[in-house]
Design a protein that fits this description.
Length: 359
């Protein structure tokens, strides 16, 4: 196999989509499109997966190889590590084989070090052993924000060659918005604020619940989407009647919610990048976000910020923004412009420039 061939670690294709899996899928999709369109300097790609991995339709034109008999971390460390060792291995999701030097690893953040309570003991222990070694030993290392690059340098030592890759937002616009979700949940009657719940402590959804409790008969509803019921954060107490919990939503349903929401609230205290705010911006939704970690770097002056530890400030920001339709329109316009510069094609081209010296 030619050294110009890039082997892509496709382990993520067999998992439920999370933030890093979204990044990996969209980056691979964009690389495959550039290759298919004959763009200059795109190497041959081969995606390597564990046996029995279901493949998406958009990979139909990209060579895929199953290797080995194992799965999960064991497959990655013992079988992927030995696959075509002369080729550059591309790892897009924080992990990669420790015994392979000829590889590029994208390390999105240092969350297992900074917010260890967000992870199970076994996962945390493995990642806290693996990430520093990958960072120091891999031929190439990339991350997704200047914030994360600084975090990695502080924790594991400075590397002058760590590249910051951009991300994209246009994936949320790919399909048709499922407008029926608005009718199913009675969301056309008055304005609504959108938030997405998560049990991970660093996602900080508890501050949203506390802020809602401080609002006295607001002129808007609050829509909470996600697989985790927000009552968990309030100790099981009833949410105010103006809060509508819609549960898990598809991308098409989420697009409809973004498009019609008066604003999107993002309270996270730790993010390597943070895709949801830029997804909201791409859909023309103004963003109210925590002034923490990488979020101000990513959202710039398009978002309105609040202290993620201050529920009172969040309540005041919500009230003020919902009473200011002109301000919301201005922030939506700035956000849409920001999101237009965040494309997966640009991200893939940046990744290609990072890989070329090693090919």
């Amino acid at each position: 196999m030619s050294r110009r061939t890039v082997i892509v670690n496709g382990r993520f294709l067999g998992r439920s989509v999370t933030g890093v899996d979204r990044f990996a899928g969209e980056m691979l999709r964009a690389l495959a499109a550039l290759r298919r369109d004959g763009a200059d300097a795109v190497p041959d790609l081969k995606v390597v997966v564990p046996p029995g991995t279901a493949l998406p339709d958009w990979l139909a034109d990209t060579p895929v190889a199953e290797c080995g008999r194992l799965r999960s971390h064991a497959w990655e460390q013992l079988e992927l590590a030995r696959f075509e060792p002369d080729s550059l291995l591309l790892n897009l999701c924080n992990s990669g084989p420790l015994l392979r030097r000829r590889q590029l690893v994208v390390i999105h953040d240092a969350a297992t070090f900074r917010v260890p309570e967000a992870y199970g003991r076994k996962f945390r222990t493995w990642y806290r052993m693996m990430i520093p070694r990958l960072y120091r030993r891999s031929e190439l290392v990339a991350t997704v924000s200047d914030f994360s690059r600084r975090e990695l340098a502080v924790l594991f030592g400075a590397r002058d060659d760590v590249v910051v890759l951009p991300e994209g937002a246009e994936h949320i616009l790919r399909g048709t918005a499922d407008e029926a979700t608005l009718d199913r949940h009675g969301l056309r009657r008055r304005p609504f604020v959108l938030a997405v719940s998560s049990l991970s402590p660093h996602k900080n959804f508890a501050v949203v619940v506390e802020a809602l409790a401080r609002l006295d008969d607001p002129s808007f509803d609050v829509v909470i989407a996600g697989g985790q019921n927000p009552r968990v954060f309030g100790g099981g107490n009833a949410l105010p009647p103006f809060v509508k919990y819609v549960g898990y939503v598809s991308d098409a349903q989420l697009q409809a919610l973004y498009r019609h929401a008066a604003c999107f609230v993002f309270p996270s205290v730790y993010e390597g990048f943070g895709l949801p705010p830029v997804e909201a911006m791409a859909c023309g939704c103004p963003v109210l976000a925590a002034n923490a970690a990488s979020i101000p770097e990513v959202c710039g002056d398009a978002a309105l910020y609040f202290d993620p530890r201050d529920a009172g400030e969040l309540a005041r920001r919500l009230d003020g923004l919902l009473a200011d339709p002109r301000g919301r329109a201005e922030r939506a316009a700035v956000g849409r412009k920001l999101s237009e510069n965040l494309t997966w094609e640009n991200a893939a081209r940046c990744l290609l420039r990072t890989m070329l010296p090693a090919l």
